[in-house]
Automatic annotation (TrEMBL):
Binding site for a divalent metal cation: H154, D192, H397, E401
Biological process annotations from GO: regulation of DNA-templated transcription
GO MF, one annotated term: metal ion binding
Job description of the protein: May function as a transcriptional corepressor through its interaction with COPS2, negatively regulating the expression of genes involved in neuronal differentiation.
InterPro entries according to UniProt: DUF34/NIF3, DUF34/NIF3_animal
Name the record gives this protein: NIF3-like protein 1
Species, as recorded: Solea senegalensis (Senegalese sole)
Amino acid sequence: MSPLVLMGCRKGTWTFVSLIHRRLCAGRSLICPSALFSSASTVSPSLSFPPAHSQSLLTNRQIPVSLHPPAHLSSTRSLWHPTPCCSLMELKEVLQVLEQLAPLALAESWDNVGLLVEPSKSRPIKNILLTNDLTDVVMEEAEAMSCDLIISYHPPLFRPIKRLVQGDWKQRLAVRAVEAGMAIFSPHTSWDSVKGGVNDWLVGGLGRGQVSVLSQALCGASHCHKLEFTVRNTEELNSVMEELKACAGGASLQYSTSRADNGGIHVGVTCSDSVLPLSVHTLLPHTAASQSLNILKLEKPPLPGHGQGRLSVLDQPVTVATAIQKIKSHLGLNHLRLAIGWGKTLESSVCTVAVCAGSGASVLNGVKADLYITGEMSHHEVLDAAAKGTSVILSDHSNSERGFLTVFRERLAVRLPDTVTVAVSKADKDPLEVV
């Protein structure tokens, strides 16, 4: 008899689903059973979409949504005991779990995220190593543990490369990974953006508060434009729509019609950037349509809770001195760099704090807050913030991110079978030290 797994609750009704296929265990369905349960001490990402009337603007790409069961049912690996058919996981199955935890669609457009190195020969994933940066010493650590998959927060391959030679350290690491049959995956800004990700973890170091996103993530909408025009009758409508459908490669079109004031038919058709020029060209021979044509740019709906940077209005304000100690403890550091805001002292109250992991100046710029926390800012960016009365705490770039690896390890491990070991690198560290 196949094991029964508690899938989730909707409107008070519990549904039991029988797991009869290996792919369900590994997350090949849209909602993996294992993705429904997260550690009680962590926050599982969940994507909230706009109301139903806005769905026509969304892309057909499906982003998995993690559900939240009652607290007494969340927490441990014991909620999902993999059967023998599920005891081994392929690379693509682990990637699906990673996608559920932080969809790559949330990453910044300039970023290079996802699977960066894929071995030619498939093998079960048994050992996963998490690191903030993939360096020579981390690669040695991965080789020593017979690692199958390296999850490097920062992408070791970022800019296009024309050759793979030993003279370049990043190319050398890529070659070593290929030779060892190791895959390399990088989440980078998708972890920054996702609700419950790096930035939520960072701002949580000062305690509870009302948290908002500084740079809101938007839903990836395939239809970015709306064409509005009028046709004379139903026959012309059918003719125009068939031509527009051909422009879209035969795909179904999202459109609406209504009776126009002049007795014709008013039409609204949504289309993507790539199809827009050809669609307009298609309408030009139709006199009524071309003379009445309006092109509207559609705004992408926001994804609440997701995006870059966080602003927290603290439930319990602290002093600058206390904030320093809290962040040292949260990041596991003995030293931080501090710039006191103009007119402020170590005993000044911190009621609002803005954070951005890594190099956060572009996200924090112009944000009104008592305190900025980030990894690094330039000399002049710190001066600008301090002159406006905002104190600044700098931890060095990767120190503002690395602590999240331990949190993520727990979230990932609970979604994988016991045959998979997930470890956090012991060799990984920030290249800068206080001496």
